[in-house]
Amino acid sequence: MNEDKSLRALRGRLLWFVDDPEVAGEAAHRYVADGVVVITGGLVTAVGGASELLPTLPPGTEIIDHRPHLIMPGFIDAHIHMPQTQVIASYGAQLMEWLNKYTFVEEQKLAQQGHPEMLTRFLLDELLASGTTTAAVYCSVHRQSAEAFFAESERRNTRMIAGKVMMDRNAPAALTDTAESGYADSKALIERWHGKGRQLYAITPRFAVTSTPEQLRLSGQLAAEHPDCFVQTHINENQAEIAFARELYPDSDDYTGIYQDFGLLGRKSLMGHCIHNTKHEWRAFAETGAVAVFCPTSNLFLGSGLFDWARARREGVRVAVATDIGGGTSYSMLRTMAEAYKILQLQGQSLSAFAALHAITLGNAVALGLDHLIGSLEPGREADVVVLDPAATRGMAHRLETARDLSEELFVLVTLGDERNIVATYVAGARAGRPEGGA
After folding, report:
1. Phi, psi of 79 (to 5 degrees)
2. Alpha carbons 259 and 327: distance in angstroms, whole number
3. Is the pTM of this model over 0.90?
4. Rounded distance between C-alpha atoms, residue 114 and residue 142, angstroms
5. DSSP-assigned letter for residue 361
6. Helix 213-225 crosses helix 179-193 at what angle (to 10 degrees)?
7. What does the pLDDT look like over 4-44, one tens digit per residue?
8. What is the DSSP letter of 129?
9. DSSP bridge pairs for 161
10. What angle do CA 404, 407, 411 make, to 5 degrees?
11. Are the C-beta atoms of residues 104 and 394 closer than 8 Å to each other?
């Protein structure tokens, strides 16, 4: 880990959240038209108006002037697949066929020396270029894929959550582990990487369809042995998947009950998709504190269905948002929220710009239980920061000529924005380099 001990200040228009706009309204956000974020040793140490803070800085402090751009906390992606960066945009299949036809074929390549390292470098380059500084990442079944991911994340000093996928049935033989080896490999990875620098581990049974009861039992045992680790898996994405899972686990009440029966449903459980949850399942999520992870672009691309965010809110279930590359179609959390807006519109629900930007910063941090570390510009938080130019494209600049206020400007950013709007990304206060060939 290359820890940056220096003092620097970023100047620009500041926007961050201290609460949920859907609950607290205007009081949920802080906006400073000419502000400064002071960073010392990778942490935010002060934030406020430039006129108040600049005179307090020691002589010689590095001041990076990003005016008139917008400075926000780095974006957070709650569900993404490192092995699937070359699966994105694979034609014409729904979930189960898509896995067998495309995904499992590509994931077998991670057994090849150097392949996990190449994919990891590409993924982290793309995330940082899109303003994403933290993600919950699925590696492949191969232990070396998680080793490669954590090593590269540590080198870049990014705060990442990741885990080796566990699956011991209903996948190609070359892509399966056993219940025992999945447990042993995961345990070794936890001991090596969880809490090392900024790295966090997620126990990762892919989903009930690809795990035997014994593997889910040992996954639950891991979760009990390491309660500070995350659990990540998939649930209720596709009707054929649901039927298959119920066939494999006939004694469980429902799909959610499968995970609950094996001790895999709790406050640190990140449950991907949740499109077809029943009333009973929503209640189980609320009672256990499990997180429903909304993946807009993959839900649309794979024809899986429309996530009901309003229902999740009514049931008291925490929601996180994610790209879900490679079923998802963009690395950009801005693009992801544009699609989330459309999914909600189709259901008579609304999503304001403030709610969308809260979701991919403080909202996701709260859902992950990491809001004491990331997701905000409040003093004491890790200085993961994104700088945005809302007028980065000709079309956006043209539209913003008629914007009447901040909320309208931000709605244009959320609706039309993508990686082209990212001026700079800072990881623990240090500016991240763009990938080769980047602007």
Report:
1. -170, 110
2. 23
3. yes
4. 13
5. I
6. 20
7. 568 999 999 999 999 999 999 999 999 999 999 999 999 99
8. H
9. 136, 200
10. 100
11. no
